[in-house]
Amino acid sequence: MEKKLAAYLDMWRKLKTFGLDYMSRFAKGSPAATTFAKLSTLVDALNQDAAAHISNLREGRDQQVAARDGLVLCLDAIARMAQVIDRTIPGFAERFVIARPKNTPRVLATAYAFLKDAEPVAAQFIAHGLPDTFLADLKAALDTFERAIESRHTGKMARAAANAATRQTRQQMRTLVGQLDVIIRYQFADDQAMQGAWTRARQLDGLPQPTAAKGVLPSTPAAPRAPTGVSAPASPPASPPTGDPAAATPR
């Protein structure tokens, strides 16, 4: 998601830069100048929105990973101590095994199982060196992880609601770029440098392209030209003169 968003933002920024670089080529107040001004405003709005979006995504993800790692440390301490106790109480460690895949459901299930199974034998763990608060510490780490999961989920839901406005802004930008594409390709049809710069600005980099032509919008076809090298259709044969008996009478 972040990669796709970053690719589109890069293209929008290039379009804005193109407008700033070539603004002198457009008359003040012309449709092209006005459209570039609108495009620039929308690009700034999208940049701010995307920065907040990416920051929130990373923050939520980092908090969840940190909380999960903290919970796994608590579980690991209990599992290791259970192995020590198992030397004198065979089978003790069987209830305290950590499944190595650290996916969220597995970690949560393991934490709840450890809390349940460790409470009746807490004295054994404490006697072998775990702190008196090890069960409370495990519960606190579990609560922190669950809050981080809920916070991240809430952030995703809020972002999904905000995406509607963002999609509308992107649609407006696509419309503006389409208008500019027509203006530039026709008004500056003989300016190869400008055409090349415009094509590069509209190019979408960093993502697989479904077609050979890269870019978010298809290029506007060149203005139609009159066909060359095609002979005009032959004129129909003239009607024979009405006063020529030789032409009128077959031989």
How does this model look, in words?
It is built from seven helices and no strands. Helix 1 runs antiparallel to helix 2, helix 2 packs antiparallel against helix 5 and helix 3 packs antiparallel against helix 5. It is rod-shaped, with a radius of gyration of 36 Å. The C terminus is likely disordered.
Average residue pLDDT: 79
Radius of gyration: 36 Å
State the distance separating the first and last CA atoms.
86 Å
What does the largest sheet look like? Answer: none
The number of helical elements comes to 7
Instruction: Estimate what percentage of residues fall within beta strands.
Output: under 5%
Structural class: mainly alpha
Helix percent band: 55-70%
Q: What string, H for helix and E for strand, traces the elements in order?
A: HHHHHHH
Q: How many E strands? A: 0
Choose one word for the global shape. rod-shaped
Low-confidence stretches are 212-251
SSE order and pairing:
Elements: H1 2-22, H2 31-86, H3 104-118, H4 122-127, H5 134-187, H6 192-201, H7 245-248
